[in-house]
Amino acid sequence: MNTPQVHVSGSVYSRILWFYGIYTLLANAAFLIGYYWLPEGFLRGSPMTAPARVVGEAQTFLGQLGLTLLFNLGAVAVSSIVMNSQQVKGISLGYLYPLFLGVFSGLITGTNSFAASDITQYNVRDGMALALSIGNLEMLGYLFIIAATVMFGVYQYRSWWQLKPTKVMNLRDVRLSKSEIVCLVIGILLIIFGAFRETLMAFNML
């Protein structure tokens, strides 16, 4: 099968910066909406926090770390790659994922809907340090993976209403550049390190 050129805008580094900027903007806006207009704990029992509740039930450090990595790498990261395999009019569906991550993380934080912790127990300085070294690292890891796998445009749609896509290449035909491979590896490492620190926090080891 001849491999057509998949449309990708900018370098992988510019995509990461754009994703992070959009994610930060949406996360901050969603935080303010959640803080001022939604009740505390609004999303705590929602399906969106179900994975965190499952992880919190693990009784051992390794068990909780393993479940965290299972959800973060096995679910979130893989879904972002699957979304990148679909392109509508040359636009990767993976571009929508940072929008979801921004709104979701902002609302969770703004409404204090964490399944296994209560952020009101931390002062501003400690809370910021934990947020930047755990959740922010994991989110940055997702953005690195999304930006690095935009070339996975295996299925193309000519419009948003087309139900059956056109397969333009096989997955084995995808070739990532050196910079994309580096960013993919960095993204995976950031998620692993963030999950490790998250598990440390859960067991009061930070």
Number of helices: 7
Oligomer: single chain
- The low-pLDDT segments are 1-5
Described by strand count, sense and barrel closure, the largest sheet is: 4 strands, mixed
What would you note in describing this structure?
This protein is mainly alpha-helical and 206 residues long. It has one domain. It is built from seven helices and four strands, in the order αααββαααββα. The longest helix is centred in the first third of the chain and has 26 residues, at 12-37.
List the helices and strands and how they pair.
Blueprint lengths: L11 H26 L12 H7 L4 H24 L1 E3 L2 E2 L4 H14 L13 H10 L1 H14 L6 E3 L8 E2 L10 H25 L4
Parallel strand pairs: 1-3
Antiparallel strand pairs: 1-2, 3-4
Helix pairs in contact: 1-4, 1-6, 2-3, 3-6, 3-7, 6-7
